[in-house]
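Can't paste images in this forum, so I'm doing it all in text. The chain is below; anyone willing to post the predicted C-alpha cells underneath?
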Amino acid sequence: MSDRSVTNILIVGVGGQGIVLAGDCIAFAARAQGLSAKAAEIHGMSQRGGSVLSEVRYGKDIFSPIIPAGGVDIVLAFELLEGLRALSRLKKGGLIIVNDQKIIPASVTYGVGVYPEDVKEQISSGAEAIILDAFKIAGDAGNFRALNSVMMGVMAKRLEIDKKCWEEAISSLVKPQYTEVNIKAFNLGYDY
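Text version of the structure:
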C-alpha cells in the first residue's frame, strides 16, 4: 500500500473493544515513521455496547482526520456486523480485516432488528476480506482484551510502517502492566 500518498483506515466495533486506542496507536506509529497522521473517533453509545468508530489518515500531508466518502483503504472491524455496516465505505480494491465475533446489538435483543445469518458471506463477497478469530489469538497471547493489538498486527504487515514504530506506539499508549501482552498479541497478529 506504499503507492498512495494518503492511507485511510476505518476502525469499527462496539464499546469496550479498544477501537479508540487502536486508532491512537495507528496514528502514533505513522508519526513515528515520520508521516503526518490525524485521527478522529465517534463513541455513540459505547458505554452500552453500542457502535464505536475511529478514522485514521496518514501520509505526507494530512489536514483533516475525516475520510472522504468511499475513500477507506482498510476497514479494521472488531465485530462482524460492524464490519458489514462499514463495508459500504470501503473503496474498490480495499481490504477489510474482521474479527470473527458476534456481539448482539440491543435492537436484536429487544426484537426490533435481526442479526443476519450470512454476515461473513456478505463481507467476503463485497471486498477482499481477512476474517480471523482475533479473540482467541489474544487469549493465546495472555489477555482476551488485547484483540485490538492482534487486529493491528494483521493490518500492520500490509502497511509500510516499520514494525518497531508499532511496538513504540503500543509501549507508549498502553498501560505499562499490559504492554508486554499487547506486544505479544500484536506479533501474533503480524505473523497470522
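The chain has a mean pLDDT of 92. The chain is about 40% helix and 25% strand.
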